[in-house]
Design goal:
InterPro entries: Glyas_Bleomycin-R_OHBP_Dase, Glyas_Fos-R_dOase_dom. The chain has about 130 residues and is an alpha/beta fold. The chain has one domain (about 15-65, about 80-130): 2,3-Dihydroxybiphenyl 1,2-Dioxygenase, domain 1. The chain is about 15% helix and about 35% strand. Strand 7 and strand 8 (about 125-130) form a beta hairpin. The longest helix has 11 residues, at about 20-30. The two termini are about 15 Å apart.
């Protein structure tokens, strides 16, 4: 199979994730290597109104507590693809915090990628891959 891409990276779409315990999810993502860019606490103690987490290789995730905004989104229903130049290092960090591995690390044969998938504390799936499209 031949995989065709446009060859243009698209860093301007940001995923938005809601969480029943956004501070726990924020800490989980920070442990994987995300960097906190902005944090606006919620009205309720321990809640997050808006948090921006940047990935060192590019991209951003927006995070908020479920009770902070009206949204049809529900915790545990997202599947996110994060491009990384070193998935092995991210997997090592994920294992060190006890992340549940959904798909073990593998070198894909259909397309040029080394990747794995883990589940966050809310049940969302995060795939970390060298494949950038």
């Amino acid at each position: 199979m031949t995989v065709r891409t446009g060859g243009v990276l698209q860093p301007s779409i940001w995923a938005s994730v809601v969480s029943t315990d956004a501070l726990v999810l924020r800490d989980w993502l920070l442990a994987l290597g995300f960097i906190e860019e902005l944090m606006i606490p919620g009205e309720r103690r321990g809640s997050v109104h808006h948090c921006q987490l940047d990935w060192p290789d590019g991209g951003r995730v927006l995070l908020s507590s479920t009770d902070e905004r009206q949204t049809p989104c529900r915790p545990g229903t997202s599947s996110l693809h994060v491009v990384t130049s070193d998935p092995d290092a991210v997997l090592e960090r994920a294992l060190s915090i006890g992340a549940v591995v959904v798909h073990p690390i593998v070198d894909q044969t259909d397309y040029p990628s080394r990747d794995f998938t883990v589940e966050d504390p809310d049940g969302n799936h995060w795939t970390f891959a060298t494949f950038a499209g």
